[in-house]
Structure formats: structure tokens, C-alpha cells
Amino acid sequence: MDDVILPGNTIGVFGGGQLGRMIAIAAKRMGYRAVVLDPTPDCPAGQVADDEITAPYTDVTAAKELARRCAVVTAEFENVPADTLEAIEPIVPVRPSSRVLRIAQNRIAEKTFLAEHGFPVPKFRTVRSREELLCAVSEIGCPAVLKTATGGYDGKGQVRIEHPDEAERAWERLGKVDCVLEEFVLLEREVSVIVARNLRGEEAVYPVAENTHSRHILDTSVMLARIAPELARQAQELARAIAEALSVVGLLCVEMFVAQDGRLLVNELAPRPHNSGHQTFDAAVTSQFEQLVRAICNLPLGSTELYRPAAIANLLGDLWEGGEPNWAKALELPEVKLHLYGKAEPRPGRKMGHLTATAETPDDALRKVLEARRRLKAKEAS
Ligand code: AMP
After folding, report:
1. Is-above-0.70 flag for pTM?
2. 94 CB within 6 A, ligand 1
3. Using a 6 Å cutoff on CB, does residue 182 contact ligand 1?
4. SS in 3 state form for the chain?
């Protein structure tokens, strides 16, 4: 097969957090070498990879060093500066490309791309000036959500607007930067679908995940989502079509809203492994991390089938408030798996790890993983 990057070659990863760590684990398991570039030494991925380059993402010289040492380069998160990736594209294949990252890292570009290709998104308007803001509020109505075009994640950089009078203050709070104003959607639930695409355009679509958030941060995710099979099929087809329209090589996670009025709307694109796909590590024939390695190395893609329904619960730094969590207590449930990311400092809101549970049904998996997380806080020694 042409253009296949075989085991033994080195994969470069921009970003050394938990996603980079799990990419490195999958790569190493398949016999690849992994080098990570991250601004912080001893980062979660660096602990697993063969080597780490410690440099800011804007350091093009360091990025070129990574490029020269690798057969292919990927990014664990979409906010690696697209300019840095573009600068190394003449040296090494970057998958997904800087073009895809550029679209995903700017809400204006992302929503415009989706709308222009006929994909369903919440009603939105671009806001680059006071005039555009006032016009957007009158066209979209209230309640609405004002979101910064760049730099927002986990609910940062967004303000809900209940009344038109609040719009100017909300924009000031966001620093009067470029924004999108979108309708506030009454949500029935939030779901996401991960799609893999290799260089030959072969595609593999994961089952739909159903997600809950707490303080705008993903809290739990269940696979299979508890939605009608026809809606699940629609969500999977939507994600697949978007990955194809973007010509993604690698992974694309499409976050979606199921609105109370029945609409299926795209909220956000993440061209990388996603928190809502961590179930696949323990419950799928091919994990999202292995699938990324296969896709960027142009290998045949693996089956996305789940062995069993599964749920994950994130472990945030807040859990450490009363001291080190009682890991053994959670693992008394034999179908629960512990994933810790090797982060030294458990700050509130910081993703430190997750638990996965598999079960006969999605409901049982969710119950089990929540029970395991509850037990972590148990004071008595195991
Ligand atoms: P985002 O950073 O755009 O993914 O938004 C974070 C979370 O805020 C989403 O997962 C939703 O729970 C909520 N949210 C964002 N945009 C909207 C919207 N237009 N309508 C209702 N809820 C929203």
C-alpha cells in the first residue's frame, strides 16, 4: 500500500496532556515511537513517549525539530497555532492538516463552513463590531449565547444573554473581541460522534456518545447514547459527512445538540481524540487512540464496534479536596477501570483522570461508574 507509515516510524504529537498520553500509549503498543512537544516538562504524554521537546507551541524552530524527527505529526488539541503547523507542513505530513485546525479553532470559520455546506447549526450571527452586535441581537432574539471566536473551551469565553439590554455589557466582558452570537437552544440532550478517516478516504464511525456537563466541563459520557436508533443513524451520518467535507485525515469529533423541538444541531468540531470517546479505550474493538494512529499512518481502520455498553466519569482536581482519593474502593467494582493522567497538581476543574465501567446496558454502565466515583471519596481505608 502506498503512503503507509509502518510501525517502527516515529509519530510526533503537539500537546502533552492526557489525549497526547493516550495517543502515545496506542502508538507505542503498535510498535511506533512517539515524540511529544509541550511547553511543560514531564507532561502526561512525555511520561509515556520516547522523548519530549519542551517548547511553546509558537516556537517554529522547535516544531521543525519535531518535524525532522517524525514520519507524521498530529495535534492532541485544536488550539495549537495553525501557523506553527503550516510552517512544518513542507517537512512532514501534518494530520489533520493546518487547514482543518484553522477552521476548528475559530467559531466564525467553523460555523460559516458548516452553514455553507448545509449542515444544521444553531442560528448564529458574526459579531465584530458594536453595530453587528446590536443587529445580531435583534435578529437572533433572546435568550442567546455570545461566544468568543477563538480561545474558548469548557465554557470559557461565553456569556448567556437574557435580554437585549445585556448585550453590550456581555461583549465588554469578553473583551470586545470577535464573537458569534447564537440562539440559546433548549436541550433535550448533548451527543457526540467520532469519525476516523485515513488518507485513502476510508471512514469509520463510532457509536453515538451521550454527554453530560458540570460547570461546562464534560462530566459523564455514555456509549451507546439513549436515543432512538433513527436519530443515532442521523447523527452518525452527519458526523461522517462533515469529516468528508473537511477532508479530515485523522479523527473528527462532532459535538451535537438534540434540541427539545427535535432538531439535531452541530455545536462544535474537534479534530482530535475526544473526552466522549474515552469509553472506546476499554469497550471498543479499536480505541479512538489506536484509530487515530491507523488513520494518520494510512493503515486500514479498525472496527468501531463496542464489546459492551460503557460509561466514563471524569475525575477533576476537586476530588482531591479531602486528600488522595481512595482508588482501591472504586476498583472493588470489578468492571471499573481507572485511568490517571500523571498530573502532579490536582487543581479544581483540572481533568486528572477518568473511570470507565462496562455493563449489560448503558444505564447500568452509568450507574456503575457513578457509584465507583462516589466510593473514591469514602474516608475509611480499603
Ligand atoms: P461550547 O464551549 O460551545 O461547547 O459550549 C459548552 C456548553 O455550553 C455546551 O456543551 C452546552 O451545554 C452549552 N451551550 C453552548 N452553546 C449553547 C447554546 N447555543 N444553547 C444552549 N446551550 C449551549
Report:
1. yes
2. no
3. yes
4. CCCCCCECEEEEEECCCHHHHHHHHHHHHCCCEEEEEECCCCCCCCCCCCEEEECCCCCHHHHHHHHHHCCEEEECCCCCCHHHHHHHCCCCCECCCHHHHHHHCCHHHHHHHHHHCCCCCCCEEEECCHHHHHHHHHHHCCCEEEEECCCCCCCCCEEEECCHHHHHHHHHHCCCCCEEEEECCCEEEEEEEEEEECCCCCEEECCCEEEEEECCEEEEEEECCCCCHHHHHHHHHHHHHHHHHHCCCEEEEEEEEEECCCCEEEEEEECCCCHHHCHHHHHECCCHHHHHHHHHCCCCCCCCCECCCEEEEEEEHHHHCCCCCCHHHHHCCCCEEEEECCCCCCCCCCEEEEEEEECCCHHHHHHHHHHHHHHHCCCCCC
